[in-house]
Write a structure and sequence with these properties.
mainly beta; four-stranded antiparallel sheet
Length: 143
Amino acid sequence: MAASNESKKDPESTRFLLAEDVRQETGGKFTISGLFTANAVLLTGANAKPGAARISLAALVTLFGGHGEFEVHTAVLSPAGKMLEQNTQTATLERRQALSLVFKWAPFAVAEFGDYKLRVRLDEKPFEFPFYIGTEASWRAST
């Protein structure tokens, strides 16, 4: 558990971006390559089959409006609810600042098409960020 901090405050809002790659540059800026609009990864060609797809996937999660040191637990859940990736780290959110967390999975093996979730928990406060992986036809059929 993260160190006790009486003045700790949970973040009030979040931002989630899904892309092929995210890098933090000098000075704190982020370079985002291959942004997936609508948080949908639409596969084509040889990659358009579950089990065959190996993609580069990255997420940028930004948290606003809180402060303190947090234990950050992350997990990627498949459409069937299976935990695919997980990680734990400690992060500090400074007052009047944003905390940006970058997660990268390369290669990310797509075993099934459907609605995935990135679950981020700061201490005991959960946040979920849904995203879709599949073909354009399967995505349109699911919406």
